[in-house]
Known about the structure:
251 residues; alpha/beta; Rossmann fold; six-stranded mixed β-sheet; four-stranded antiparallel β-sheet; ATP-binding; ATP hydrolysis activity; nucleotide-binding; FeS-cluster_ATPase_SufC; Fe-S cluster assembly ATP-binding protein
Amino acid sequence: MLEIKNLHVELEEEDKQILKGVNLTVEAGKVHAIMGPNGSGKSTLSYVLAGRDGYDVTEGSATLEGEDLLGLDPEERASLGLFLAFQYPVEIPGVGNMTFLRTAVNAQRKARGEDEMSATEFLKEIRAKAKELQIDAEMLKRPVNVGFSGGEKKRNEILQMAMLEPKMCILDETDSGLDVDAMKLVADGVNALRGAGRGFLVITHYQRLLNHIKPDVVHIMSNGRIVKTGGPELALEVEENGYGDILAEAV
């Protein structure tokens, strides 16, 4: 589904290389987790895949179901089915949550040649999904993320993901700043979306999120490369022993 080959990326303004040959394949129906110390390039990988400005791809490729991602605008990548949940979701004052979501859903449907969702259909759908995520109806009426707690912002992003039904979901440290209850709610929302036609790339520092979102494959990233790949037991090894031994092996 998502295939990354020999991806090299630099920061445009600093001429500093961040990714130094990333190779990764995420299959449909699978959850892959990326762990690694600060500065290893985990978040940069997510930003580059989503099309964030400020990064220069100097070598390599990234495709989603055979389509070249790197040559597309961010909205075109989203229409293909790519979704990025940010570590720090942005606030959008003056734009209502419901308006934002209905506009996003219908923009994607239009790009795929599908009929737009009517107001009645949308209202029924979003209320059902919000209830599953324990999102209060009043929260849907507020401006996007304005005045939301950290947990509310993350649940709101999972609601966006549930409404957009992407093919490839990237979660960039979505557990950051969450207490145990909020993290479990977010994880439950993610698990409800797992299925044969959807892949997940979960970027995290800690095993604790992976207690709730069980990965099929775990990758360790360091210095702009994936240095080790294994099963869920690899995350447990990191939790118990840290990254030291794994990074020493990679030298």
